[in-house]
C-alpha cells in the first residue's frame, strides 16, 4: 500500500466534515458547495480504498478509518496554519500585536502608549487585553506581558523589576488612619487577582511584616486589580496595591503610601516573545521602551523597606 499523501484539498474537506459532522456546515466553512465538498471526500475515500463516513438519512458518522484519520488531520492543519501565520508575521515589519492583562493595560500600559507611538510612528501597535495564556507560536500575537511565578521555557523572556505590594489610600484616609495599628479599624479592600500567589501576599501577610497579628474578615473584594485600585482612589478604603498598578495614582497624588513596609513576591511581570523574534526591530523597540518606562519610576521604591514574603514568619 502506498504512503503517498492524497491531495491537500481532499484532506481539508475531510477535516472540516469530521469536525462539524455535517457536509453542509463543512462546505459553508470552506466556502464551497456541498456537492464539491462531497466530491473531494469521495476522491479521498477512493485514494484510501475505504469509506471514511457512513452516510445516514440526515447525518453522517465516521467509520473506523475516519476516526483514525480525523485527529491527525485536524492537528496537521492546525500546525500548518500556525506555521503559515508565523511566516506571514515575519513579513510584517510594521504591525506589532501585544497581549497583556486588563489591569496592567488600564493602569500602566495604556497611559504610556502615546509616548511609544510618538517615538515609533512606523509601528502599528495593537493591544489585546486578556488573561488567557496565548500560544505565541499559534496565535497572531508578537509579544505577551505575563505575570506570575511560572517559567517561560523555550521562549525569550525578560523579567521586570521586583514586584511588591504596599497599602495605599487617599490622603484623606491617610489622615484618619496614620499608623499600621489603626488599619485594624480601616475599611480594607481585597484584590483577589493575586490570590493564586504562593506564598500569599495578602493583608494578613502585610500585617505580619509590620509585626501585627491581624487577619481582617470584612471588606470589599475585587477580582480585578484595576477595579480595586479605582475603589481606593474613590475613597472606598485601603488597598494592598501592586507596584505597577499604583504608580501613576501615587505619583499624581490621588493615592499615598503612608507606611514604608512593602512585601515582595517571587512573581514578576515578564516581556515574552518567541525565541529569536526578539531581534525583530519592532519587537526590540517595544522591549527597550517597556524596560525604559519601568526604569523611569524606579524611584517609587526609594525609602521603602521591602521585605520578601518568604522572610515573613508564617501565621
UniProtKB/TrEMBL annotation:
Gene3D superfamilies xrefs: Periplasmic binding protein-like II, Winged helix-like DNA-binding domain superfamily/Winged helix DNA-binding domain
GO molecular function, one term: sequence-specific DNA binding
CDD domains assigned: PBP2_GcdR_TrpI_HvrB_AmpR_like
Transcription regulation as UniProt keyword: yes
GO BP: DNA-templated transcription
Residues forming coiled coils: none
Domain HTH lysR-type: 6-63
Keywords: DNA-binding, Transcription, Transcription regulation
Keyword Transcription belongs to the record: yes
Pfam family, any one: LysR_substrate
Family the entry assigns: Belongs to the LysR transcriptional regulatory family.
Name of the protein this chain belongs to: Transcriptional regulator GcvA
Organism: Ruegeria pomeroyi
Amino acid at each position: 500500500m502506498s504512503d503517498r499523501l492524497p491531495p491537500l484539498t481532499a484532506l481539508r474537506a475531510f477535516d472540516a466534515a469530521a469536525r462539524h459532522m455535517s457536509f453542509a456546515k463543512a462546505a459553508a466553512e470552506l466556502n464551497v458547495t456541498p456537492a464539491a465538498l462531497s466530491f473531494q471526500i469521495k476522491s479521498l475515500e477512493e485514494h484510501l480504498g475505504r469509506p471514511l463516513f457512513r452516510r445516514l438519512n440526515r447525518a453522517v458518522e465516521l467509520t473506523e478509518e475516519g476516526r483514525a484519520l480525523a485527529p491527525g488531520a485536524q492537528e496537521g492543519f492546525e500546525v500548518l496554519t500556525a506555521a503559515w501565520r508565523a511566516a506571514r508575521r515575519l513579513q510584517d515589519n510594521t504591525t506589532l500585536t501585544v497581549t497583556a492583562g486588563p489591569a496592567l493595560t488600564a493602569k500602566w500600559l495604556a497611559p504610556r502608549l502615546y509616548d511609544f507611538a510618538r517615538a515609533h510612528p512606523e509601528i502599528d501597535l495593537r493591544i489585546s487585553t486578556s488573561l488567557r495564556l496565548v500560544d505565541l507560536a499559534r496565535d497572531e500575537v508578537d509579544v505577551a506581558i505575563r505575570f506570575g511565578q511560572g517559567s517561560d521555557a523555550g521562549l525569550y523572556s525578560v523579567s521586570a523589576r521586583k514586584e511588591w505590594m504596599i497599602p495605599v489610600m487617599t490622603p484623606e484616609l491617610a489622615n484618619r488612619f496614620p499608623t499600621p495599628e489603626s488599619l485594624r479599624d480601616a475599611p480594607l479592600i481585597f484584590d483577589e487577582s493575586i490570590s493564586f500567589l504562593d506564598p500569599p501576599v495578602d493583608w494578613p501577610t502585610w500585617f505580619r511584616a509590620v509585626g501585627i497579628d491581624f487577619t481582617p474578615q470584612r471588606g470589599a473584594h475585587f477580582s480585578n486589580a484595576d477595579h480595586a485600585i479605582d475603589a481606593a482612589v474613590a475613597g472606598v478604603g485601603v488597598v494592598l496595591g501592586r507596584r505597577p498598578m499604583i504608580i501613576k495614582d501615587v505619583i499624581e497624588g490621588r493615592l499615598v503610601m503612608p507606611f514604608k513596609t512593602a512585601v515582595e513576591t517571587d512573581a514578576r511581570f515578564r516581556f515574552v516573545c518567541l525565541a529569536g523574534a526578539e531581534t525583530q526591530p519592532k519587537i526590540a523597540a517595544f522591549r527597550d521602551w517597556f524596560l525604559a518606562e519601568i526604569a523611569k519610576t524606579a524611584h517609587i521604591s526609594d525609602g521603602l523597606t521591602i521585605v520578601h514574603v518568604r522572610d515573613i514568619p508564617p501565621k
